[in-house]
Design goal:
Length: about 240
């Protein structure tokens, strides 16, 4: 039997799924089956136009952008299960994981308790830690998620510039700032309450050029009032079963 001292704090991942809106219920059923504790669903719109991107599931249609938390060792299992359930046709979508730098302790404790109650997961956790310590697991980051948060109405123009700089496509989410009354100002530039968040997964080699082009044309000192940032993506998968 495992005791609390024998189990290290579990490493968690933020998993992001971008799928057709009609697949939300299927995705939720997989989460229930795999006992995923936390997930959040938002609506977005794809911006890609090529046939290849439509096959990958990031074409121009209504999308569900789903964020969930899972243990690092179980993330590949969840990705494969989702792929089996919704990867039956073109346009299935994409999924990727983002490493977390921190999370509030009560949530972390929930995951730790689940390890204590499940011998198989505890054994996987120990093996996972040993492999990491032995340096057998590659930590090379090959992709990044570029996020652009701009005033409403600039996403289409921004994506044109991003594609010219090397981006394959993106997903747009409508958002609203709530931390202020009326337009807020950054560096003396007015920023609207209504915002658009553009998510673009790209190779690490193309990231700098995309961010530079977008920032130059739609950065914080422009009318778009854009905030441009990136985070590493350590696993990336097309959800169509016929695509690697």
């Amino acid at each position: 039997m495992n005791d609390d001292k024998s189990v290290k704090q579990p490493a968690l991942k933020l998993l992001v799924f971008i799928v057709d809106w009609g697949d939300v219920e299927v995705l939720s059923s997989v989460f229930e089956q795999e006992h995923v504790r936390y997930h959040f669903i938002g609506k977005g719109w794809g911006t890609a136009s090529s046939d290849i991107l439509d096959v990958l599931g990031v074409g121009s249609s209504e999308k569900a952008v789903v964020f969930c938390l899972e243990q690092e060792i179980l993330a590949p299992v969840l990705l494969k299960e989702v792929r089996k359930k919704i990867g039956r046709s073109a346009g299935a979508g994409i999924a990727f994981t983002v490493p977390l730098s921190g999370i509030n302790n009560p949530i972390l404790q929930v995951f730790k308790e689940s390890i204590l109650k499940n011998e198989k997961i505890a054994e996987m956790q120990i093996l996972h830690e040993k492999e990491k310590e032995a340096g057998k697991m590659s930590n090379e980051i090959k992709h990044d998620l570029v996020m652009a948060i701009v005033n409403q109405g600039y996403s289409d123009e921004l994506m044109t510039v991003a594609r010219e700089a090397g981006a394959s496509g993106g997903t747009i989410i409508n958002a609203r700032g709530i931390a202020h009354q009326g337009p807020v100002k950054f560096f003396g530039v007015s920023v609207q309450d209504e915002r658009e968040i553009i998510l673009m997964v790209t190779s690490r080699e193309k990231k700098a050029a995309i961010m530079q082009a977008v920032s130059q044309n739609y950065g914080i000192t422009t009318e778009a009032g854009g905030i441009i940032l990136s985070v590493p993506v350590d696993m990336l998968m097309g959800l169509n079963v016929n695509i690697e």
